[in-house]
Specification:
Radius of gyration: 17 Å
Number of helices: 3
Number of strands: 19
Oligomer: single chain
Strand content: 35-45%
Distance between the termini: 42 Å
Number of domains: 1
Shape: globular
Length: about 250
């Protein structure tokens, strides 16, 4: 309580917005690789994380791609990272997405990382029946992969999770999402091409209890407080966005 009060006093003294202490950026070298790192306090009442999918509800799969910038524009987005995989020919988003206790899109790729209303992380193995699962305790979730970290340990086994695209096993620009045991979400984009094994080591060193690889390569991108830290080289169908809590609800971008 004393620590929280001290942080709030500092925020007020500096004239910063209330969410400033709950969202931060760093550019550390992790396992020898320069890294863009955004840290989100999932217990914060002032900010929320949610998926944004290109399309029109209730048909979230409108099979349409947009530029990252157009998906962020006009949303009040504080930070964002590219999301899960999609088919570049049909623009079908391949990973499931959860928002505010409901399945906003059911995909068929990867394992699912969920965040409950207390800011705790949960992992659901690939193949689970999400349509029949009670998702009401969860505020946010994304399915992607392969899994990088599970229960604080490297757990990289792409083929066991159904990933066989040879491009995934070469060096590439990467994006990843992870949850720390203290209730912090970490969004990561690397500054140079790396193998999945390197990315897994990085996420563990950054303290992830659970971590998933996101779509990478030409899809890899990150936005933070008005600055583009990395821009995708192609249009994409979905992003993971951090917004002020009073802006939450914009799930799709037409």
């Amino acid at each position: 309580m004393h620590r929280l009060a001290a942080v709030l006093l500092l925020v007020l003294a500096l004239g910063l917005p209330a969410f400033a202490a709950d969202l931060r950026y760093a550019n550390p070298v992790v396992a020898g690789v320069r890294t863009h790192l955004v840290v989100v306090d999932l217990k914060s009442p002032t900010i929320r994380v949610q998926p944004m999918v290109s399309g029109k509800p209730p048909l979230y799969m409108k099979r349409r791609a947009r530029t990252f910038a157009s998906m962020v524009k006009g949303t009040g987005c504080l930070a964002a990272i590219n999301g899960t995989f999609f088919d570049p020919r049909t623009y079908t988003t391949l990973g499931s997405m959860v928002f505010d206790g409901r399945l906003v899109h059911e995909g068929f790729v990867g394992s699912l990382l969920l965040v409950d209303r207390a800011g705790r992380g949960h992992y659901v193995k690939r193949g689970a029946d999400l349509a029949g699962m009670d998702l009401s305790p969860y505020t946010f979730g994304v399915a992607s992969g392969p899994t990088l970290v599970h229960r604080g340990r490297i757990a990289l086994n792409p083929r066991a999770e159904g990933f066989r695209d040879p491009r995934l096993f070469s060096r590439a620009k990467r994006s990843a999402v992870g949850i720390r045991g203290n209730g912090e979400l970490i969004l990561v984009v690397v500054s140079r091409p790396v193998y999945l094994s390197q990315l897994a080591r990085m996420m563990r060193k950054l303290g992830a209890e659970y971590a998933l690889n996101l779509d990478g390569g030409s899809s890899s991108g990150m936005y933070y407080r008005g600055k583009w830290l990395a821009r995708p080289k192609r249009k994409i169908t979905n992003i993971l966005a951090v917004l002020k809590s009073d802006d939450v609800g914009v799930v799709t971008r037409r």
